[in-house]
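Subject: Sanity check before I submit

Could someone independently write out the structure tokens for this chain? I want to compare against mine line by line before I put it in a report. The sequence has 164 residues.
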Amino acid sequence: MSTADAAETPSVRSPAVGTTWVSPLGLAFAFLIDSQETDGGFSLIHVTAKQGAGPARHVHSREDEAFYLLSGEVRAMVGEAVTTLRPGDAVFLPRGVPHTYQVISAEAVFLNVIAPAGFEAFFREVSQAPDRGEGADVTTDRQRIAALLNGYGVAVVGPPLPVA
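---
Independent answer below. Compare away.
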């Protein structure tokens, strides 16, 4: 579908409608706008994350990300800078800059924008959609996850943030 076609057929979704994919690392993903709908331009994901959830420090070679925090508190590390995000805060995670985050409240909910799109397929690869019986043989093995990330042009460059 071209971007012009996508504009003529708007996608309207709520995270409460449709399939939520669940990761064993404490994350749940609701895919609101997907790559096919934006001709690969971007994707938009609604993420619900449990306390302590967060990836190893990593760097993307292909895409930029941005988070907009809806609820909870999240520590984010971009480059060497560490900050605490609260509801209403946004953070830009540019390609080529190492970053990570950790949920420090009991739960956090945020929007994740990925541009260009495509990396959202990784989240499906390491998650399951229990209500549809879909999903990969998910793992919590960080070495296996690092190998999968490599296939998406993402390199793990350090550990997750220490638990605060």
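---
OP: Matches mine. For the report I'm noting this point. The mean pLDDT is 86.
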